[in-house]
Amino acid sequence: MEEEDECPELVPIKEKSTGPTAQIPVTIITGYLGAGKTTLLNYILTEQHNKRIAVILNEFGEGSALEKSLAVSQAGELYEEWLELRNGCLCCSVKDNGLKAIENLMEKKGKFDYILLETTGLADPGAVASMFWVDAELGSDVYLDGIVTVIDAKYGMQHLTEEKPEGLINEAARQIALADLAIINKTDLVNESEMVELRGMVRSINGLGKILETQKSRVDLSQVLDLHSFDTKDGIRLAEKLQLVKTSQPHLDKSMLTITFEVPGSVSEDLLNIFIQNLLWEKTFKNKTGLAMIVIRLKGIFSIQHKQKKVMLQGVHELYELDETSECWADHEPRINRLVFIGKIRYSLSVESWEISCFITFKTCFINNLPFTVFLLQVETLMATF
Ligand SMILES: Nc1nc2c(ncn2[C@@H]2O[C@H](COP(=O)(O)OP(=O)(O)OP(=O)(O)O)[C@@H](O)[C@H]2O)c(=O)[nH]1
Ligand SMILES: [Zn+2]
């Protein structure tokens, strides 16, 4: 893990030129796992604003880019650069990939006039933002327009008040501290007193940024794009902000991990729902020390029996939804069901036994048309094997 780089001397970039060599604005969309970043991205991509937008997505964990790509609408002309980082994130493990992705996009320059960069839910937007000052010539093509942080109204307080291992920063707080715009999303899931508490907490972390409140991340785009938050006169402001939230330790919480299951076949929707409810609500899957994984984020793509379309699973803490996507399983396409867990298990050394117990039960969802009693018997037999 790279030590956090010294904050680079921030050199305000020169006045933005206009015309064909016009610099392209970049908006960083950040926010904790499941807060609604992709929902905001989709909303921006599908709203009428006659901007041709390029998207850079940085996903946490191996292979989970697939779910992300299915979640990002294919509206309009979309240039997608993937930064699929193995259990890392753009900001602290492979900064140069971020630059590479932007430079790849710049080669297609002229075809788009705005870049949206969605970070992983665990990323440090400060390190991503400072990328725009580290690489001088990059500054000539793009400029950082603003940092937009999406906050989950239902779990935001839990994320912000979570005890972190010694010296580790709370990434949710850091994402808010650096926001030019904070969007408190999912207001449909909380009452007024919870909103007052969260609003106060956000304001106490970030006294400057604008705060909007939304459902499904639907905001007035003039409040999100073209903010010019870091124009020359404000460039120094980023330095101050970075100093404000600067820490010496890397921020990636080692206890956070991603587990991916891939199983061929088609699954019974009922058995899948039972499996997910046992996982998220009953926490029935334990490791050999009797611990369950704290699943913070759950994503998946499924082939459901008797359905032609791919079904996407989205879960955030205890909430989950199975939605049919517009994409069909192609005739020759192998039906591989993928399930990605992002979460933590104390004493992660014993995550394997948790993984085995969970995987075996997941596999039993694929044994077609089992009477439920037989299914449960199978689960018990399987669970006894380790
Ligand atoms: N109830 C409710 N659900 C929402 C709202 N906005 C988004 N969601 C759901 O929350 C889940 C996560 O939304 P995403 O947009 O994928 O969140 P994200 O921040 O991109 O998540 P990561 O992939 O972990 O980074 C999805 O199931 C969304 O449909 C909202 O305002 N209310
Ligand atoms: Zn990072």
From TrEMBL:
Catalysed conversion reaction: GTP + H2O = GDP + phosphate + H(+)
GO cellular component assignments: cytoplasm
InterPro entries given in the database record: CobW-likC_sf (IPR036627), CobW-like_C (IPR011629), CobW/HypB/UreG_nucleotide-bd (IPR003495), P-loop_NTPase (IPR027417), Zinc-reg_GTPase_activator (IPR051316)
Domain of life: Eukaryota
All residue ranges annotated as the CobW C-terminal domain in the record: 258-344
Keywords: Chaperone, GTP-binding, Hydrolase, Nucleotide-binding, Zinc
Keyword Transcription: no
Stored Pfam families: cobW, CobW_C
GO molecular function: GTP binding; hydrolase activity
Annotated Gene3D superfamilies: CobW-like, C-terminal domain, P-loop containing nucleotide triphosphate hydrolases
Annotated CobW/HypB/UreG nucleotide-binding domain residues: 25-211
The keyword Nucleotide-binding is annotated on this UniProt entry: yes
Coiled-coil spans in chain: none
Family as reported in the entry's similarity comment: Belongs to the SIMIBI class G3E GTPase family. ZNG1 subfamily.
Name of this protein: COBW domain containing
Annotated source species: Cyprinus carpio carpio
